[in-house]
TrEMBL record, chain A:
Entry protein name: Fe-S cluster assembly ATPase SufC
Organism superkingdom: Bacteria
Keyword list, A-Z: ATP-binding, Nucleotide-binding
Residue runs in coiled coils: none
Residues in ABC transporter domain copies: 2-248
Presence of keyword ATP-binding: yes
Entry's family note: Belongs to the ABC transporter superfamily. Ycf16 family.
Alphabetized Pfam families for the sequence: ABC_tran
PROSITE patterns xref list: ABC_TRANSPORTER_2
SMART domains: AAA
The species this protein was found in: Mesorhizobium mediterraneum
Gene Ontology MF annotations: ATP binding; ATP hydrolysis activity
Keyword Nucleotide-binding (UniProt): yes
Cited InterPro entries: AAA+_ATPase (IPR003593), ABC_transporter-like_ATP-bd (IPR003439), FeS-cluster_ATPase_SufC (IPR010230), P-loop_NTPase (IPR027417)
TrEMBL record, chain B:
SUPFAM superfamilies the record matches: Stabilizer of iron transporter SufD
Highest rank taxon of the organism: Bacteria
Species in which this protein is naturally found: Mesorhizobium mediterraneum
Pfam families for the chain: SUFBD_core
NCBIfam families, per the entry: sufD
Lineage: Bacteria, Pseudomonadati, Pseudomonadota, Alphaproteobacteria, Hyphomicrobiales
InterPro entries: Fe-S_cluster_assembly_SufBD, SUF_FeS_clus_asmbl_SufBD_core, SUF_FeS_clus_asmbl_SufBD_sf, SUF_FeS_clus_asmbl_SufD
Domain SUF system FeS cluster assembly SufBD core, chain residue ranges per copy: 169-393
Designated name of the protein: Fe-S cluster assembly protein SufD
Biological process, per Gene Ontology: iron-sulfur cluster assembly
Gene from which this protein is expressed: sufD
Amino acid sequence: MLEIRNLHARIVDDGTEIIRGLNLTVKAGEVAAIMGPNGSGKSTLSYILAGREDYEVTEGEILYNGQSILEMDPAERATAGIFLAFQYPMEIPGVATMEFLKVAMNEQRKARGEEPLKIPEFLKRVKDAAALLDMDMAMLKRPLNVGFSGGEKKRAEILQMKLLEPKLCVLDETDSGLDIDALKIVSEGVNALRAPDRAIVIITHYQRLLQYIVPDSVHVLYRGQVVKSGDKSLALDLEANGYAGVIGQAA
Amino acid sequence: MNIHTTPQRTPAETALIDAFSDRLSLLPGDGTVMLKRDDAIEAIKSGLPTRRIESWHYTDLRRLLNAVPDFDPAAAAKAIAPIVEGSVILPVLNGVSSAKVPVIDGVIVQRLSEKLTDGSIAPGLDPYGTDDAIGALNTAFVADGYFVDIADGAELDKPVELQNLQAGGQTHVRLAVRVGAGAKAVIVERQTGEGAALVSSVSQLLLDEGADVTWLIVQEQPDTATHLAQFKAHLGKNSKLTLFVMNAGGKLVRQEIVVKTTGEGADFTLRGINLLAGDTHTDVTMVLDHAVPHTASTEVIRNVVTGRARGVFQGRINVHQYAQKTNAKMACNTLLLSDDGEFSTKPELEIFADDVVCGHGATVTEIDHSHLFYLMARGIDEKSARGLLVKAFVAEVIEELDDEAIVEALETRLDGWFATHG
């Protein structure tokens, strides 16, 4: 589903190269975890997948279902089924959360040639998803993410992911800022989305989240490259021995 | 020795002076009113204000007002649907009030032409200063409008909507409103029409003790019209005024807001949005006097500038020497969406009291790229995402009004503007 080949990318503003020859393949139905120390390029990778303009791909290719996405803007990627759950979701005053959800769902439907959702159907879907994530509907009446706690923001991201039904989900440090109860709820939300035609990429610093969302593959990112890949036991190994060993081998 | 040279009159000045001679015999008013008209036209004869007059520095009326249309008594205008369903409408069509004045419980409504004829409105016709060009223009030419008196304790369950609808030519209208002690009302002032008109419109509001008024000015003139407006209010003891101003049209617009707190405990809120497009000039100028102790005010102005539009906000707060415990906060935020657009903002605080809380702030920004990215990352295309963010920037101010029917009505006006200019 996702194939990244020899990807090089830099920050547009200052030219700093962050991704330096990254290779990664994630198949449909797979849950892949990307781990790595701070500054290894994990979040940058998530932004590049979503199409953030602050980064420029200088070499290599990102294929999504065999097609290059490099020329697509963030909205086109989203409508094609790519979803990024942000590490730090933006607070947008003045945009009502419900209105935002409706516009996003219907814009995606429109791009796929589907009819807009009728209001009762839309409300039902939001209510069902919110109930699953133990979210209060009153929260969704507020402006988008404004005044949400860290945990509420993360839940709101997963709620959006659920409603938009993407095919490639990228979760950037979704576990950060979550207490253990919230972590369980969010993880259940993600697990419910596991499907044979959907791939999930989990970017995380710690192994903790992977106890609840068990990955099929684990990849260690260091200095903009995948330096080691393995199965879920790699995550446990990293937890026990730290990154030093893996990085040492690579260096 | 002083040598006074009168600069050559502009075509607009000449046209106004000629129009006054032509109109004089048709203008209503007793002796006192006619004397005030004479004084007013003298002020115009000495020249329209230029950028050398401080309060007109960013709006050089003499240069910008380059044509004055003739009066067109034959032009027709039709009343339109009110912004809030079920409102009582006071129509002023092409400058003329309705002979059939609506009946509202607890309210006296009179045609302003009658109040001019009997002279009872004369004291309110004085301009408020030598630089009050809008006041002078209106006093010279005002022919009609309404006088509204809301009885003590009356609570109007429906908004009253004044519709000043121009049909080209010139219209000079005045609305004088007194709100009695403890009375409560929502008043909508619609300013729109269809022609390349010159409109002057003055609203005067007097709030007695404990009165509570929400006043909405919705200005949607065509981009051929010159709109010169003034809103003047005195706020009595413990009265509360929420003034909302929306400018979403006009070629040359100046909306002056002159407010004075005259009673302790008075509370003034100003919320304004300026939606600027095309090759237009829009100026909102506020002079607020905190004249007695223990009064509060907050002002928030949000501007969206597109095309080659130019905008101005001047906000002056005077805190008088005895006006201790004044609490005043003013903010002006501008979203500049084009390279050729322009916005000038001038906050002024003049404080003579020593125990007050006053503050002001101004920002000029573009659309936040991280917000844009976030919305697009959810599949909302760039144009719609920008539209959502721009609308959000101004809608925030509307939502504060906290009255569902009003918020909905104003958002409809907002959507209308974005549909044509977004």
